[in-house]
Amino acid sequence: MSRPVTENVSTDVLVGEVVDRTDEDPESIRTWLDPFTDDGTVSSAAIEASVTDVAQILATAETRVDLATRTHEETTAAAADAPDLDIVAVRRRAFGDRLDDLRADVEALGDELGEARSGLDSPVELYRAAVALHEVTTDAQDIVRIAHDLETELEAFEAWLNSANRRHDALVDEVDAAAESVAAVAETVESLRDVAEPDRERWFDATVQTRVLDLVVADLRAEADDLRTWAGRDGVSFPDGVDERLDGLETEVADHAAALADGPAWDDRFEERLDGLDTELEAVEPPVAWARVDETVAEVRSALSDGGPTPTDAAPPNTSSPEPGPNETDAN
Question: Per the record, which residues fall in region Disordered (predicted)?
Answer without folding.
Answer: 300-332
